[in-house]
Amino acid sequence: AIQVSSALKEHPEIKLRMGVHTGPVYRVSDINDSRNVAGGGINIAQRIMDCGQAGHILVSKAVADVLSQLRNWASLLHEVGEIEVKHRARIHIFNLYDADVGNAESPKGRRTKAPRNGESYRRKAATVRPDSGQLVSKTDASKSNPNAVPSVMPTSGQKTNRIWLLATAAILMFTIAAVSPTSRNKIFSFALSQPEISPAVPPLPNGRYLAVLPFAVKGDLRIVGSIAEGLDEALATKLFTLPDLNVASTEATRKVDITRPLLTIAGRLGVNLIVKGIVEGTATGILITVNLDEVPSNKTLLKEQFRGAVTDVLSLEDKIFIRISKALNVEQFVAERQQVPSRPTENNEAYELYLQGRAAFLGPKDIKNLRAAIGFYIGALKKDSHFALAGARLADAQLAMYQETRDRQWIRDSMETALRAQTLNEKLPEVHIALGTIYGETGQSEQAIVQFKRALQLSPKSDEGYRRLGNLYLATGNKDQGIRALQNAVIIFPEYWINYNELGDAYLQLGEMDRALESYDRVIQLDPDNYLGYMNKGNVYFQKANYPEAITQYQRALQLQSYADVYSNLGVAYFFLARYAEAVRVGEKAVALHPKNELYVGNLAAAYFWAGDKKRATETYDKAIALANNDLEVNPKDANTLGDLAVYSAKNGDTQRALYYMKMARSISPSDPILLSEEAEIRVLANQPKQALESLQVAIKNGYPIEQANLEPEFNALRSDSRFEKLIQQKTAEKK
After folding, report:
1. What distance in Å separates the CA atoms of residue 78 and residue 684, rounded to the nearest whole number?
2. Which pLDDT score, from 0 to 100, does residue 94 have?
3. Cα dist from 596 to 567, 630, 716, whole Å
4. Are 505 and 468 in contact (CB under 8 A)?
5. How much is the pTM?
6. Integer Cα distance of 126 and 55 in angstroms
7. Contact 318, 233 (CB under 8 A)
8. Over pLDDT 70: what percentage of the chain?
9. What average pLDDT score do residues 67-71 get?
10. Using CB atoms within 10 A as the burial measure, which of 382, 480, 675, 724 is most buried?
């Protein structure tokens, strides 16, 4: 890459960008029996390359970790952070440049939002909150390895000759910057990935659990790319209808690193059956190769090719579904019904536009892609005005556009579109999921619960549906129903780590520490390379005020993934040990990764203040106030954000406004121990020690840790008050 970049200085008319990664590569034969190469290593390198512009040499974290150990290379590496790429995957990249080679400008790829797997603590917080109305699974975005890209497997009937090509260099992908790549071309060299520990796969006698992985693409992406994007989702939806079969959600499969061995993938998803394949463009149409593997026995139950025209996608999906059903020995069930599950539309042109919309929507979440997705969905609805699934997906895209732009017109459009889709097909689960998500985004939790319950009536084997419903129940104070819903998710997919992580989050929120630790230990057992198990164990120890052990767990999590939520939580733990400089250092990393999260920004402001940098603290609190107000424009009933806003306002000297916001927050959640402790802080800043002690006493009674109260620096003004000392001593004695 360095040599190529140097040579191109003499050819400024050539605009070149490069992506470098190390990973598995296979030599395969294509449909015409021509020799080619494919594999996860190439796919990830291409994703990295796509993040850059002319002149960039972008490398993956895997490559950077090696180069950083070499003196002559370390100075060329400049961390960019995580960027969202295809399939909502996140890749941690570095920009390689110096004065002579590369491009020093920051890549314009979209930095990702913080994962939703267990929210970071507020600076004082000691409980994990459900995401404020964001009806995505709290373990969605991060719960898995971010490099979720399709792998390419040899097709049936070909000479496979699958061998490892070994060399000392990494995979290098490059393209002319002004040209959109439409096919997978040449690479230079390859490297072998290291072996890994595979999570446990559920035994077949325990039940059949199946995942449909994203299909890989060979050939012209413009012809078959959108077909591949939608095929896994369409097949999973049809397979959901089969008896005695539990199917992993598409949301889950698209967040696992499918470049890893099947045994590892199956363990990560908690499945024992995997459908995978390739969509290939040919001179006469498309060729879809489908494999069904029984992972525990290492058997291939189905390996078959399906040919057709691009306009035959709906028919091909039906044929693939019937063949998979036969391989699973449930073809009798399909025959008795005398038909395969109904198609979302009978209009091939509408379906093609819909698939193009899904391809755009599932790409990097930027305004350009979202506008493209919205345009395709609208086009599909023009071709078939009764296409309810396209309406539900259009509502999803409009909601995502709101989340990107914060333009409230988009959320109004989203609600209108979802309601219209409901009139088209009230029995479509996706319609109710879209409506429930919108209601949750706007703080209408009861309406959201109604929609998710209806979705579960229509799709009762959806563990994702139970997770969402459980978190909504918890957010509205229905603790028993919330726990039951999350336990149902575990029953449906007992080997899927996300279900245990969600259950652990609930127990932590309810103060049941031992059960929370049991759940998180199960997460680590099922998926030992997942950072969330360690981060959430750190959250439990934080709740117990065992900050040194919390720090140990957070540091273990960071060894696996450098995510904003872990950095922020680590900063809070440092804060309570009065290690303010370290709190600032990691807090800045959290904000750099996710600058629009009011919680991370507020935590950093507190660290600046107690580290002695009052000016930066004031400026940062101003930013946190603006971010919190922005969030409240959409969900004015978010008690957590109202409480945060109250604290930020008090820190910047406006205690009257702070007390007003706190009154609003407590009217929504009157018994919340964190809000009560924050109210006590505000009372201290307002020079109301008596009322502060009263609020603190109730906070401790409701579960606020005594140790945390004793370490909170904002309560220093109370320490000389005998009532404070008596309160701490009394509660400490009661605890013993």
Report:
1. 44
2. 87
3. 15, 10, 31
4. no
5. 0.60
6. 46
7. no
8. 81
9. 69
10. 675
Residue 703 DSSP code: T
Alpha carbon 346 to its chain's center: 33
- Using CB atoms within 10 Å of the CB of residue 410, give its burial: 0 to 12 exposed, 13 to 18 middle, 19+ buried: buried
Location of structure tokens 């077909």: 227
**Mean predicted confidence (pLDDT) in 562-569:** 91
Question: How confident is the model over 660-689, as a mean pLDDT?
Answer: 92
Asked if residue 190 lies in contact with residue 165, where contact means CB atoms within 8 angstroms, the answer is yes
Query: What amino acid occupies position 297?
Result: S
Distance of CA 647 to the CA centre of its chain: 29
| pLDDT tens digit sequence for 5-55 | 888 877 887 888 898 887 666 554 433 445 556 555 676 787 788 888 888
Nearest to 632 by CA among 669, 667, 598, 592: 598
DSSP state of 566: H
Least Cα distance to 47 among 329, 345, 257, 273 occurs for: 257
Query: What is the Cα–Cα distance from 673 to 695, expressed in whole angstroms?
Result: 9
Q: How buried is residue 626: exposed, middle or buried, by Cβ count under 10 Å (0-12/13-18/19+)?
A: middle
Dihedral sign (CA 359, 362, 363, 366): positive
Number of other CB atoms surrounding residue 195 within 10 Å:
7
Q: Which of 103-107, 191-195, 198-202, 469-473 has the lowest mean pLDDT?
A: 191-195
One-character DSSP codes across 239-278: HTTSTT-EE--HHHHTTS-TTS-HHHHHHHHT-SEEEEEE
By CB neighbour count within 10 A (0-12 exposed, 13-18 middle, 19+ buried), where does 276 fall?
Answer: buried
Query: Strand ranges (DSSP E) for 68-155?
Result: 77-84, 90-96
Q: How many residues are listed for the chain in this entry?
A: 736
Closest CA to 18 of 1, 41, 32: 1
* Pairwise CA distance, residues 191 & 60, whole Å: 14
User: How far separated are the first and last CA of the chain, in Å rounded?
Assistant: 63
CA–CA distances in Å: residue 650 to residues 153, 604, 684: 59, 16, 10
Q: Burial of 613 by CB count in 10 Å (0-12 exposed, 13-18 middle, 19+ buried)? A: middle
Sign of CA dihedral 667, 673, 675, 676: positive
More confident call, 415 vs 30:
415
Q: What would you report as the CA-atom Rg of the chain, rounded to the nearest whole angstrom?
A: 26
pLDDT over 50 at 558, yes or no: yes
Which of these, 48, 261, 270, lies nearest to 143 by C-alpha position?
270
Separation of alpha carbons 727 and 717, rounded Å: 15
Supply 209's token pair.
């659990």
